[in-house]
Design goal:
alpha+beta; 4-stranded antiparallel sheet; 11 strands; globular
Length: 345
């Protein structure tokens, strides 16, 4: 008998609502806040990023801080800009379909879409109510979440988390439809309702035996991507690669890179790396959501990263940077999350 989804969801912490997962460790955050003498200490972890990259920061503004050789081609789109001009920009950059469209300010993969042609892009543009990015689709098979940090005034940082992202897919058996194949996988079952709307009649396609069907090209956990602990890849060579990437980024000391790379060999060489996003103070060590991990280990690793974040924040405070008021954090949260507006300080 198949386990009901609501029971399965609460039996595996990787599927818990974010507030439930974080609730038991809030006392440790309060302890760090008291030691740091600020409830918003984390907002100075990255002085070069709005609110330290806690939330509501502009993806475009952050990516502009990174050496362009590591970035996909991209166009920033504002609703006030004539769409014909946007298409001209894409043509000038050599951007070809498919492309990725995503909000300039967004969380957890919300409204991130693979666009296959101009008609789909026009529809996305019509529906978009805020600034967004059209980004080159990188078809490298390896996508990683890499969390890096460095103490202020130090010329050496470290990678502390590497997460390999395994995209949601099903493998055909020659007789079952895509929907039936999805029902056999717990991870896929969580996505059936959403993908039934997106794929429509394609859910009834019968795949050949051994045929692999990619169901979700966007590497977000909430969209079915499996996060796999790849911390065994961490070594001094990798630290040096990310020192080279990160030290030139003004005001950046703590965050997670979402990137694609052609091969692990290239990763160690610092070659063929394409950074799609850089997240700041709110970055999680994604490896903690590996299904083979335990809740105790996940909390242990999470809290060690929180301590590192607090240490970096205190280091920046000694350099004269001041956290914003916690009241401003609450007001900004309300405006960004509840009212769905960008933060303006």
């Amino acid at each position: 008998m198949r386990t009901p989804l609501f029971i399965a969801k609460f039996s595996r912490y990787e599927y818990w609502p974010w507030w439930l997962f974080y609730l038991p460790v809030l006392p440790y955050w309060l302890y760090l806040a008291i030691k740091s003498k600020s409830l918003a200490y984390f907002t100075v972890a990255n002085p070069g990023i709005e609110l330290g990259g806690f939330y509501g920061e502009s993806k475009t503004e952050i990516l502009d801080l990174i050496d362009k050789k590591y970035l996909p081609k991209a166009v920033s789109v504002d609703n006030s800009i004539d769409f014909g001009y946007v298409l001209d920009q894409m043509k000038g950059l050599g951007l070809i379909y498919p492309v990725i469209a995503k909000p300039d300010v967004g969380e957890r993969g919300n409204q991130v879409t693979l666009i296959h042609n101009q008609q789909e892009l026009i529809l996305y543009n019509v529906k978009s109510k805020s600034k967004y990015i059209i980004q080159e689709y990188i078809d490298y098979t390896i996508e990683l979440g890499v969390l890096y940090s460095r103490m202020p005034n130090s010329q050496k940082g470290k990678v502390s988390s590497i997460t390999l992202k395994e995209f949601l897919n099903v493998i055909g058996d020659g007789k079952s439809t895509i929907k039936v194949l999805m029902q056999k996988s717990l991870r896929a079952r969580f996505q059936i309702e959403r993908l039934s709307i997106e794929l429509g009649d394609k859910m009834n396609i019968v795949l050949k035996e051994g045929e692999v069907k990619l169901l979700e090209p966007i590497g977000n956990h909430c969209r079915g991507t499996k996060f796999i602990d790849n911390n065994f890849l961490i070594n001094e060579k990798l630290n040096n690669v990310f020192d080279k990437i990160c030290i030139p980024i003004s005001g950046f000391y703590y965050g997670r890179f979402d990137l694609k790379v052609k091969s692990i060999e290239d990763l160690y060489k610092g070659e063929n790396i394409r950074i799609m996003e850089l997240n700041g103070a709110s970055s999680e060590p994604g490896h903690i959501y590996d299904p083979s991990s335990t809740l105790n280990k996940a909390y242990k690793d999470l809290l060690s990263h929180w301590k590192r974040l607090a240490d970096i924040s205190k280091g920046n405070m000694k350099l004269g940077f001041k956290p914003v008021s916690f009241l401003l954090i609450i007001k900004s949260y309300w405006r960004f999350v509840v009212l769905k507006k960008k933060i303006y300080l």
